[in-house]
Amino acid sequence: MAADRRIVIENCAIATVDGHDTEYASGHVVIAGNRIESLGAGPAPEGLRDVARRIDASGHLVTPGLVNTHHHFYQWITRGLATDHNLFDWLVALYPTWARIDEPMVRAAAQGSLAMMARGGVTTAMDHHYVFPRGSGDLAGAIIGSARDMGVRFTLARGSMDRSEKDGGLPPDFAVETLDGALAATEETVRRHHDSSFDAMTQVAVAPCSPFSVSTELLRDGAQLARRLGVRLHTHGSETVEEEKFCHELFGMGPTDYFESTGWLGEDVWMAHCVHMNDSDIAAFARTRTGVAHCPSSNARLAAGIARVPDMLAAGVPVGLGVDGTASNESGELHTELRNALLINRLGGHKEAALNARQALRLGTFGGAQVLGRAAEIGSLEPGKLADLVLWRMDTLAHASIADPVTALVFGAAAPVTASFVNGRQIVEDGRLLTVDEDAIARATRDEARRLARIAAQA
Ligand SMILES: [Zn+2]
């Protein structure tokens, strides 16, 4: 076998986000094939063979690639609607439009969502897709193909809804699947697309949408299905006070107790939001190592509240960051969520001690890898891990006068991405994607957004 080609990156600040938060003021990273071979202070070792490329990264900060842990790609073509609503009113306003999506719309929306994140330093993306109108084509295949074409590492959380208005749920009757249909299609998606290998580019999770849109049976059977297939579980939880009230009225208990009763707490589970959690809810997540996808911008947009991230971290709950769907976070960028997570949590009870810049960076990298079940492979820069990393430019007007590069990245303006590598392959250069045509994607997303709006207006 040919020796792995090496890429040498030198003269950069490095935040490894390893277990000791090791940082180098000026250091090097050596990529060999799809792995990080070595890193450390000063220049790369001399005498390296098969060096295909040497990058002088002066003026840059190198970090692990960002890991997004919650998103709904299809919402890229329904941005800017119902802008002054809370969660339940926003959902009820948008479900009828969402229920009209088809494969070309979902493909364009996936490309738009992925492109926006990838050029901002995301190297691992996820999509929680739960709207599968009858006859709408191979939506899972379209989403997974989009991630593969772009070269982004990816988890598809195959969602589902089977509790519609007639069963006391929130979605309209025509927007849901049957219990058996959802389970069968989810199993098929796992069997077709899930890769459990160390350097997998595609994984699949089982992901019924939320307590107010799925039946108790779908939660319970979904958990059993995931464990039978050896994949992870994802859903929305404890997002709003309205959801808490819904759970008490229908199930006679709060969301966390309801999840526990249906098999939904465990180290193979991560949940989006987790805003309305009391001390015993947080203790239950910590005891079971259930993960959380913290989505600060979406929670603010929908006036859901402030998740107790400092308390979760102190209790040992794994926490990552999420963009959430772009119908509730129009920017669709994860690097801005580092800043928003820090700022929004300081508005909570812990004030200025809530989170610091290093903790925010950890949430967006290693924390994300943890909740996606991939902490052994990605999320920090360590020899042997996969080469998913970002070169942030720190010597321009926006950041050059900020003393510390990690502080600059988190507190400062969104930093330009000079290069982003996934699995050892460069996918971004100077803020532009190398793998796809951004302008063509922009046109396609505009056209599909207009087509969806027309169809929804006629319905
Ligand atoms: Zn969501």
UniProtKB/TrEMBL annotation:
CDD domains: ATZ_TRZ_like
Transmembrane feature ranges: none
InterPro entries: Amidohydro-rel (IPR006680), Metal-dep_hydrolase_composite (IPR011059), Metal_Hydrolase (IPR032466), MTA/SAH_deaminase (IPR050287)
Enzyme Commission no: 3.5.4.32
Any GO MF annotation of the entry: 8-oxoguanine deaminase activity
Keyword terms of this UniProt record: Hydrolase
Coiled coil: none
Domain of life the protein comes from: Bacteria
Entry annotated with the keyword Hydrolase: yes
Keyword Hydrolase found: yes
Enzymatic class: hydrolase
Gene3D superfamilies membership: Metal-dependent hydrolases (3.20.20.140), Urease, subunit C, domain 1 (2.30.40.10)
Domain spans labelled Amidohydrolase-related: 61-425
SUPFAM superfamilies per the UniProt record, alphabetical: Composite domain of metallo-dependent hydrolases, Metallo-dependent hydrolases
Pfam families attached to this UniProt entry: Amidohydro_1
Name of the molecule in the record: 8-oxoguanine deaminase
